[in-house]
Design goal:
Blueprint lengths: L1 E5 L3 H12 L3 E6 L10 E4 L2 E4 L11 H9 L5 E3 L3 E6 L2 E3 L10 E3 L4 H8 L3 E4 L7 E3 L2 E4 L2 E3 L1 E4 L3 H11 L9 E12 L8 E5 L7 E5 L1 H4 L9 E7 L1 H7 L4 H16 L8 E14 L3 H4 L6 E3 L9 H16 L3
Parallel strand pairs: 1-2, 1-13, 2-9, 6-15, 13-19
Antiparallel strand pairs: 3-4, 5-8, 6-7, 10-11, 11-12, 14-17, 14-18, 15-16, 16-17
Length: 325
């Protein structure tokens, strides 16, 4: 069997790795230069930011054993601070009963994607705009395959299905946008017991704040601090096209309210726009991919938006092709 995989995010990488482990040839096509999708890291000067997923939480799922035992753990870091909550930037202690082990890597969470990609065949900067059905299977970018796994977000996957006149029950899958704001300061990290803040009610524009320099050593120069602020879906949608400098200034104002006026003017600032950040609602994997399918949808839109769920989607797609599902 030869399998073509559209997308080298976490679902695509886990699918390719699972198939390769069983001796199946898998070829991944990724429109970007890098791999990992939202498991992404960016360096600006001497600051390191995880711009999408800011931590990895195995939750006992398929990624657990891979992350902790199968891959290189020399740069894996257990996050030893907690996640607190805020309401209107008023901070409260998080629920310690719901603590979940979380991890990152010294050089950023994208290290996971690079480790998973090792030894896989990946065609980078190749956008798949259509899938051709043939008597023997499918063609992607001129290459023949027995089966295809599409790991792109459901809105993009739906266009590929439409071109094949495939009717799958994916209409109920919907996504939210997210503005991820990267802020680096030449002042020390505030002394707080948490590494992240969450607005559980999603009423404030600041939905999630990752204190990168509290989460992991080396994320900012000595005596400096780094943050990733992820803005809520409504705010992100309404301000998606605003200039970066305006979004950075607005977000820095939130940090100034939390930590003081020295955080109003970052030394470095940028914005990463995630059009399909996470699914608000998902389609059912089994309903979308009945047994015997050779064209499989395995995005987070059929399993859930967290990294461990995306990884699980790729494993389930591989199992379905291998007849283990």
């Amino acid at each position: 069997m030869r399998v073509g995989i559209v997308g080298a995010g976490l679902a695509g990488l886990s699918c390719g790795r699972s198939l390769k482990a069983q001796g199946v040839e898998a070829v991944l096509f990724e429109k970007s230069r890098g791999v990992g999708g939202r498991v992404a890291t960016r360096r600006i000067d001497d600051y390191i930011f995880d711009t999408g997923a800011t931590s990895l939480a195995p939750h006992g799922m398929a990624i657990d054993n891979v992350l902790l035992h199968e891959l290189d753990t020399s740069e894996l870091v257990a996050i030893d601070k907690r996640i607190d909550t805020h309401a209107g930037l008023r901070v409260s202690m998080g629920d310690s009963r719901r603590l979940t082990p979380r991890f990152t890597y010294l050089k950023g969470v994208n290290t996971l994607a690079k480790l998973l990609a090792k030894d896989l065949t990946i065609h980078r900067e190749v956008a798949i705009e259509s899938i051709e059905r043939t008597p023997a299977g499918y063609r992607l970018n001129g290459e023949a395959f027995d089966a295809v796994v599409v790991t792109a977000p459901v809105p993009q996957a739906g266009l590929l299905l439409w071109g094949l006149q495939e009717d799958r029950p994916i209409a109920n899958a919907s996504y939210r946008p997210c503005l991820s704001v990267l802020l680096g300061y030449n002042v020390p990290t505030p002394e707080r017991p948490y590494w992240a803040l969450l607005d559980p009610e999603q009423r404030h524009p600041l939905n999630w704040l990752s204190v990168e320099s509290a989460k992991c050593p080396g994320r900012a120069p000595v005596g400096c601090s780094a943050f990733v602020a992820q803005l809520g879906p409504r705010f992100s949608l309404e301000h998606y096209e605003r200039p970066n400098e305006e979004i950075v200034a607005t977000t820095a104002g939130f940090l100034a309210q939390l930590y003081g006026e020295e955080f109003r003017h970052p030394a470095v600032g940028d914005v990463k726009r995630w059009k399909y950040s996470q699914p608000d609602t998902i389609a059912d994997f089994d309903a979308v991919n009945p047994p015997g399918s050779t064209l499989i949808l395995a995005s987070d839109g059929v399993t859930g938006g967290h990294t461990e769920s995306a990884f699980q989607a790729g494993v389930r797609a591989a199992d379905l092709l291998l007849g283990h599902a």
